Amino acid sequence: MRVALFITCFNDTLFPQTGKAMVTLLERLGHRVEFPMEQTCCGQMHYNTGYHREAVPLARRFVEVFGDAEAVVSPSASCVGMIQDMYPKIAEEYGDEKLRRDVAALVPRVHELSMFLTNVLGVEDVGAYFPHRVTFHVTCHSLRALKVGDAPQRLLRKVKGIDLVELERWEECCGFGGTFAVKNADTSAAMLSDKIRCVLDTRAEYCASADNSCLMHIGGGLHRQRTGVVPIHFAEILAATEDDAARDARTA
Amino acid sequence: MARNDPTTSAELMSREVVPPLPASRPAMPFQDAAKLSLADSQLRYNMAKATTTIRAKRLRAVGELPDWEALREAGRAIKDRTLRHLDKYLIQFEESVTRVGGRVHWAADGEEANRIVAGIVKAKGAGEVVKIKSLTTDEIGLNDALAREGIKAHETDLAELIIQLADERSSHILVPAIHKSRAEIREVFRRTLKNAGDLTDEPRRLAEAARAHLREKFLTVPVAVSGVNFGVAETGTVAIFESEGNGRMCLTLPKTLVSVMGIEKLVPTWRDLEVYLQLLPRSSTAERMNPYTSFWTGLAPEGDGPEEFHLILLDDGRTRVLDDREGRQALRCIRCSACLNVCPVYENTGGHAYSSVYPGPIGAILTPQLVGVDNAGSLPYASSLCGACYEACPVKINIPEVLVHLRGKVVRRKQEKLLGRLAPENLAMRAMAKVFASPRRFRAAQRLGRQGQKLLMKEGVIQRLPGELGGWTSVRDVFPVAPQTFREWWAQRERAGRVNQDQPSSREPRP
Lengths: 252, 511
Known about the structure:
heterodimer; A: alpha/beta; Glutathione S-transferase Yfyf (Class Pi), Chain A, domain 2; Rossmann fold; 2 domains; four-stranded parallel beta sheet; 12% strand; globular; B: alpha/beta; six-stranded parallel beta sheet; 24 helices; elongated
């Protein structure tokens, strides 16, 4: 399949390793990966903060850039949620009939990575190897907006060598919430401290998730507290193989 | 209302610092009020304990019903239909109530409703009323209004009584004293009730003390004031759901009953109640059925219940909410409080941080609509949009959707004014929208960020950010712009040609 990556502005800038892992993984599974260079941002931050008008051109840009794609795959559940749930509303709110039609035509082809792997490609065992103790943070948007269910965990459970430990109170928000973390910094920090306690209770080496935005928040806290727990996008775990482990061992 | 930040933990602990409930607008922005609550470790302990318990109980109660999702859908549909034809159903309701001997009053706002209640009480020559816990009367500030007329209102719900005796305000829709521990309640009773000197903090003893105090009121006070859970247009029936029996006392003993009802509390038919009789108790107290459910249809035969029944239909901003296509779903609310109990923000901040009669997620969407976004602009932002509230809501109010809708209103209002347009947030958002409009500008911004962050970097991360972003780095390190962004890496890979390109290392270390 011809897969167009929607890497998201945020991963592009701060966490390129996640995008690279997606390239490795999807090519290993035999797909042709493309990265349309014209892409920027889906507009989620603007829209969810109340800057609705500012999000409209970004929605138009997105459907223009990805309109012809066979499948659009993204490592961010919340950005995909934005496209699926909010783009139709934006089109309606601003009475843009063309956008409404384009969105309706494109949305069925836009997928979050774990759903793309399990639902569209129908794979669970992607041939990964990751001999570490990992806990998995379920993001609110993957759980409640996209309803990915346990797709990421099913993929992770098939990873060789992994010791996947369930996070206590896993269904609870980590307190990121986009600009919420800045506007309500104290409340966000309080929610983060609850989450970090649960992460540390698992004694995991890695805290994985389906969205680097939550991980930036949780990982930023884990790093500040010098916990040694490493935040990691699940795509990076799925991309890892025994060859990588051998190479790591040689260079270590 | 201005308030100095308390400086000692003793000051924080004494809830005297909680400002009195304002008549119409939140006293301080949510983020400031939340800061105060978050510093109160006793409060956070009490809140976490209470919400964790009720969450598990609710899941059990809801899990027992195989048709829960169908019930939610019915709960939503009935309310939506009622709201769509509210004009018709309200007239029908008025006719029905009048037919069965009740007297209907219409109040455009709280002030008018308060005036009507005070008028009725005075006409009876009474100086006191007993009250059933009612958010609607809290919303309109009835107790204070009556006090100004020389009428004393006695709250008879246990938790509401605690709050009244402590001279505080409620922090939860259903459990107003959820933020208080037993020991704190004991102190309030010892300070305010007669014969409470040797009171212990055993729940049974506390309840006994309250009962002794209340019983005297039930038997002597001639007028009762209640809210309304549901009004039935077809029959003129009014319903109260409660747990303690204090409501039943108020509804049957005093000779005059005055009920204040928000116009959205209507259902068309008696049959519709079957849905809410299942949805409400399980969602609110996590019980199959609440202990006392009272229905009254007009006046009972002589000697059995009140001789006079007044029903006040209150608008107080509700028709304005109805006018908003996205926001009006907030009027479906049946005040169960499930959204508060599951909300991680509410769990941490407690209800007072919302400075609103309606705290928690529902308050964050209802209050700004009732009092206007100009007066409660911080509340739509008091959420991480996690969606737990929507999932729990028995009438399927899409709270995150309405929050984002209201944020849009807040921003539009700000952008109408020059000062708002020049605010740092607006400038930053506009600038970023411009950057994202062009891949070229986006690349340039990435490079600029990489250059700029050099000044802030320490040990591979950014430990402190300036200005408005400082809140982020108070507890978190920031991962910097990558040495090579994804698009830079991709461009390089394309140039080198796919065949010769090294596979990317799948696990690149993070800083």
